[in-house]
Amino acid sequence: MFNIFASNLQNRIIFVFVVALLVPAIVTSVYNISSSREALLTSAKLTQIQTTNVNAAAAERLLANPKSDLLFLSQAPQVRRYINNASSGNTATALRDVQSLFQSFLGRTSDLYSKSCLLDASGLEIVCVSVIDGKATVLQPDDLTNRGNDSFFSKTVTLTSNVTNQAPVYISKYSLVKNDDTEIPVLHYASLLQSDDGTIAGVLMVEALLTPIFDLVSQTSADQEVYLVDTDGNYLLNPDSSKLYGNIRGINISLLSEYPNDAEEILSRRDGNLLSSQDQPNSLQAFVRIKPAGQATIQWTLIYKEPLDNILGSIRSTALVIVVITGISLVFAILMTLVLTRAIVRPIKILAKAANDISSGQEDTPLPQVTTQDEIGMLINAFNEMVQQVNTRTQDLRLATARAKEAARVKGEFLANVSHELRTPLNAIIGFSDMLLMGMSGELNPKQRHKMERLKENGVRLLTLINNILDITRIEARRVEIVNKSFAPRALADRLSEQMSVLAERNGLEFKTHIDPQLPETLISDEQRLEQVVVNLLSNAFKFTEKGSVTLDFDVDADGSNWRVIVKDTGIGIPPHALNVIFEEFRQVDGSSSRAFKGSGLGLAITRNLVRIMDGYIAVESELGQGSKFTVTFPLMSREKINIEALEKVEAS
After folding, report:
1. Pairing state between β 283-290 and 627-635
2. Is 82 part of any domain?
3. Contact at 8 Å (CB) between 216 and 58?
4. d(CA 87, CA 90)
5. Is residue 174 within 8 Å of residue 153, measured between CB atoms?
6. Does 134 reside within a domain?
7. Confidence (pLDDT) at 593
8. Fewer CB atoms < 10 Å away: N or C end of the chain?
9. Per mean pLDDT, which range of 418-427, 538-547, 577-586, 633-642 is the poorest?
């Protein structure tokens, strides 16, 4: 089979066309489907956890309302009159007022509460109003009971408060109460009642319905299942009502018994997601703790669960469409390639024979005749002209090649000589200067030290100039390679801050850095060249700033398509006429030999060229005497953005 492809151009063209169509289509499809799956799951996680948090917060607000209502009732004048008259026994009028208060309260809030009761210090119900058939009804004396043994009463009377005439509120664990032969879940909120002299007069209790809270957190899409569990994993909400309130009904069904691994993860954390867990591999779950502030009784966990099939359904339909389109395109490509290759291969065979004859020295070989005016005809014309000019051009090329090689050799020797003959001695001079300054050959007097420091300083300046010249030469010769890879911009900013802090301290300047929170954690660029650009800009900022500050900012533009490096200083500024020339080689604002600020004038030229090679651009704003602002803009490339763009492409198709 490989021999057929090797000896037949037409077969190779067909094969290449098919592969060129099929392989990118398959790779792109697999990548897009994979990226889309991850993007859909990420979006589903965020949506699910946001919905869970919103509903949990709303539930916490509803759970906090009974406490406020109970404190309101306990401070009502009717209740306070009863409390202060309880010791004297003159309470008949006050009790009627309390009944009216309870009836009015439950009449307004019958959808939130089922009962409100006033108990004496022994736990006996003195006044109770209950919601019966939607009406606030006063219970008759025969219907009143002693609640002294109920846990909410015994817990409440042990509470103390530091607030005068206001006892803390006790919240019981949830329980079930009968209502028209139906068990409904409730919470008991109770507050200790004390007279003005501190005497315990009784307990005030309201029975809060949990149904409104359950209805609230159950408001979600039809594809999601809602669960609510307590700290032991017992179900308060479950699509299967037979599994509810296992601890009260005496049934051993809970989150711990059904999904032990999930339960351990969910009950130990405040919130989070579980994707394809060990217990439920085909589901995405979001959970969050419900715990109203200022109490310890209620610690429930709200769980939303959605099958992965519902989330990833669109991926499967997209994959089917891609397969169908790829198959149709493949058949069409094969048919069209068969037709086209026949028209291409025959003239090429004629040209190949003529070329073989000419290459073998047959100068009298007849040239092919032009029979069409299409690209094949143009190819034959070009071939014939090439044959006629080949000898002349061959000679010209040989001469030009010899000259180019000689120029390259001379340039290479020049660069090598500059690198060796200048940098090596300069490094030695700087090294020996350091040794003398360190006192390795004896202590220097102040005058000698000053001269040695000047020697070292000028040596470093000259070495920097040579390095800059070599850099600009390599850039102009396009011998600089840009290696794009992932890097952390925050880590780069921290590293630059450490490097430049010494220079800032030496010049008495404040150096500040700022990272935009919207900037991705990782970007894709050439970190080494990027650092060179930023260091050049910061070095210039420190050089031309005598007081004030230098600021380095990394931020993202408004539409999120680019990110920027901004270097701002409070230095001498740049005059308007010089803004267009500062990026040219060997150009400075003050080009005289007596200028105050030394330098080669290559730093900004190197910076601009590196930025261009990295597909960015640089701009400058400056006001004389106020400072300068250099802004370098690069296209924002990050793994997150690549994933989002891939998702948008799939959705558009």
Report:
1. unpaired
2. yes
3. yes
4. 8
5. no
6. yes
7. 39
8. N
9. 418-427
Query: Residues 195-205: pLDDT tens digits?
Result: 888 788 889 99
pLDDT band at 356 (very low <50, low <70, confident <90, very high): confident
Q: Assign 289 a pLDDT band (cuts: 50, 70, 90).
A: very high
489 and 505 both lie in a single domain: yes
Of residues 1 and 180, more confidence is placed in 180
Number of domains the chain contains: 3
Q: Which residues contact 401 (CB under 8 A, 6 or more apart)?
A: none
Q: How far does CA 402 lie from the centroid of its chain?
A: 56
Asked whether residue 50 is assigned to any structural domain, the reply reads: no
Calculate what percentage of the chain has a pLDDT beyond 90: 23
* Contact in structure between 604 and 536 (CB atoms under 8 Å): yes
Quickly list DSSP for 86-147.
TTTT--HHHHHHHHHHHHHHHHH-TTTEEEEEEE-TTSBEEEEEEEETTEEEEPPGGG--B-
Q: Model-level pTM? A: 0.49
DSSP state of 244: B
User: Tokens 């004629």 label which residue?
Assistant: 350
How would you class 369 by CB atoms within 10 Å of its CB: exposed for 0-12, middle for 13-18, buried for 19 or more? exposed
DSSP track, 427-465: HHHHHHHHHHHTTTT-PPPHHHHHHHHHHHHHHHHHHHH
Q: Report the relative pairing of strands 283-290 and 271-275 from DSSP bridges.
A: antiparallel
Q: What is the 3-state secondary structure (H, E, C) of 278-323?
A: CCCCCEEEEEEEECCCCCCCCCEEEEEEEEHHHHCHHHHHHHHHHH
Q: Which domain holds residue 210?
A: 75-214
Q: Residue 347 domain-assigned?
A: no
**What pLDDT band is residue 333 in, cutting at 50, 70 and 90?**
confident
Give yes or no for a contact between 505 and 530, defined as CB atoms under 8 angstroms apart.
no
DSSP-assigned states of every residue in 510-561: EEEEEE-TTS-S-EEE-HHHHHHHHHHHHHHHHHT-SSSEEEEEEEE-TTSS
The amino acid at 617 = Y
Distance CA 138, CA 104 (A): 11
